[in-house]
Specification:
- Pfam families: 23S_rRNA_IVP.
- InterPro entries: 23S_rRNA-intervening_sequence, 23S_rRNA_IVS_sf.
- It comes from Candidatus Berkelbacteria bacterium CG10_big_fil_rev_8_21_14_0_10_43_13.
- This protein has 143 residues and is mainly alpha-helical.
- It has helices at 15-31, 42-62, 66-92, 98-123.
- The termini are far apart.
Length: 143
């Protein structure tokens, strides 16, 4: 890090981190409505994965080597996919609406796409395929 530069001028300016924070906060908003019996189950799991995504992006940003940066960004991507699974479970349990699930999936897709672009940039191979991402307007399973 350059001398005289504040930490907040670094990772907090990343679009990837900002979008992951938006997803995390939406996760907290959704889980507020979950049944009390899910407090230590699905609610806790979702929130932990939600916090993990922007946290790993920030930690990766602090690393010196591209390999280390990419490692943490890949962990963030894994956390987003974990959240998507848990959101699908929440939908199946009628904890959230179809619209909320779709909004979550769209935000998650944006985070994954931004992370994939960040990885490509750090690896210096701008023609490499990005991390596979879910398609926009994900079709929900029929119950």
């Amino acid at each position: 890090m350059q001398k005289g530069k504040k930490l907040s001028q670094n990772f907090e300016n990343l679009d990837t981190w900002k979008k992951a924070m938006e997803l995390c906060l939406f996760c907290y908003e959704l889980t507020k409505k979950f049944p009390l019996e899910e407090k230590f189950g699905l609610t806790n799991q979702l929130r932990r994965a939600g916090v993990s995504a922007p946290s790993n992006i920030a930690e990766g940003y602090s690393r010196k080597s591209a390999k280390e940066v990419c490692y943490f960004i890949e962990i963030a991507i894994g956390s987003v996919y974990e959240m998507m699974t848990q959101i699908s479970i929440a939908y199946s349990l009628h904890c959230i609406s179809k619209e909320e699930k779709e909004k979550f999936y769209n935000l998650a897709s944006e985070v994954i796409s931004l992370c994939g672009g960040f990885i490509k940039y750090k690896k210096g191979n701008h023609n490499a395929p990005s991390v596979p991402k879910p398609k926009s307007g994900v079709r929900l399973p029929k119950l």
